[in-house]
């Protein structure tokens, strides 16, 4: 599904060029569940951002279902990005809006000011948004404002919002970093369920090695921008 070939990312900084990714190549088949581990600064976020088209690598190519995403027009890139779900460490929800509005917002892709007046959402949008809230056990909170929720509930709203896009690929950048261990496991369980039940491809950055070992099918490690390990949890445990 994803073919990464020779991807390098060089940032221009005050101290000169800095290479955050070095000649990274990897194939990720449809339905895989990949955890990316590595120290802070190893290039994990940079790699994820190249996968969702937020960052165009300085070198190399990335194909997603045959689409060369490093060579898209602005418009095509926008369309591609709508097909990828992204879950952030800081949830990135619109806190003054309701839970349901945030999930609907995920389907629309932008925040309408006069949603009610214009009737922007279809019946199907509502159906899908509500179905996703049910998947993460938040149906009773549908009308609550996001800023009244706990951190764990907020991350579940963020997952429902990403799922409401009906993404072909789900990327998550440290989704459990701001959550306690119990809630972190819950987030991982939800992602694993979508992976297993829907065959959804999941790629997740995670610094908690125990969670990566327990939930991911495949683990890759970055060190100073280089891909230094690619294998199963069992293989990684052997290596350590
Ligand atoms: P990780 O997610 O593994 O912590 P990052 O991908 O965020 O690592 O960052 C890798 C390295 O690239 C870090 O040294 C970071 O400071 C640097 N970096 C990331 N983004 C930029 C940027 N936009 N400009 C300059 N340097 C950057
Ligand atoms: P994380 O490691 O959690 O991904 P970072 O602090 O590395 O977070 O990066 C947060 C944001 O700051 C990212 O958008 C990244 O591109 C940017 N960034 C990181 N390092 C630099 C840097 N040295 N110069 C400019 N932007 C940077």
TrEMBL record:
The EC code for this enzyme is 3.6.3.-
For whether the record's keyword set contains Iron, the answer is: no
Q: Which CDD domains match?
A: ABC_PhnC_transporter
Stored PROSITE patterns? ABC_TRANSPORTER_1, ABC_TRANSPORTER_2
**Domain ABC transporter: from-to ranges:** 2-240
Keyword vocabulary terms for this entry: ATP-binding, Cell membrane, Hydrolase, Membrane, Nucleotide-binding, Translocase, Transport
- The name of this protein is Methionine import ATP-binding protein MetN 2
